[in-house]
Amino acid sequence: AMTTISDLPEDVLVELLSLLPARDLTCACGLVCRQWRAVVELTTLWKRKCQREGFYRQALDRSISDWKTFYILCILKRNLIKNPCAEGNFNHWKLDHNEGDKWKVEAMPGAHGTQILDPTVRKYFVTSYGPCFKSQLITLQKEGYWNQLMDEKRPEIVVKDWYAARFDCGCRYELTVRLLSEDYLVLEEFHPEPVVIEQWSDAMWREISHTFQNYPPGVRYIWFQHGGQDTQYWAGWYGIRVTNSSITIGPMTL
């Protein structure tokens, strides 16, 4: 009798199927037959895909209970903030408050400023003497994070932002990040106390970071807003500087 692919040992079938993209595995291969459907759900298959694509670490063996979800989160993981370093001027940003002499983009390190640690970051956004705030609304489903994944797995959501002052002027920095439901209700919020930087500070760039964990089910959007102003009301752009903002969704191990 002619041998078919169904006659292959399970470990060989795992090796072959691990070469396919995740979308094909979940949307097509599982429909071929009962045997393939069972193989597609095997931990060993998704662990093998993690090994092939550099996501596997031996230290993870005991901490990862769902290698399929881990793999998918690894594939999806990227910065969800668009134009975080001002390379596209204000594209993708909504200017919620744009007072004083308004928002401006400047090149590193700027007057009376310092260089950020990351050499790939070449520009920043800077505020004026009136309140300047800008925001982005991230639609999770558009970014590949479907509702069931967010509700059942609730992967960690990591928020980071970088801010700095000029050496010669005091300023104020604020950050607000909200996890929103389908109806834009606030399910969880990160809104630390505003940071006030005194005049004649060191002008160093500082990072603020927060991780959302064990948040309620139903998160469909992430709203990110930051900004501030100078505290001496000088004409021009003497306020807080921001750049390199990021929002990433799990897994924390990478």
From TrEMBL:
Per the record's keyword annotation, is Nucleotidyltransferase included, yes or no? no
Q: Which CDD domains match?
A: F-box_FBXO6-like
Sequence ranges assigned to domain FBA in this UniProt record? 70-251
Query: Quick one: a GO biological-process term for this protein?
Result: glycoprotein catabolic process
Mind listing the GO molecular function terms for this protein? ubiquitin protein ligase activity
Does the record carry Signal as a key word?
A: no
This chain's protein is named FBX6 protein
Corresponding gene? Fbxo6
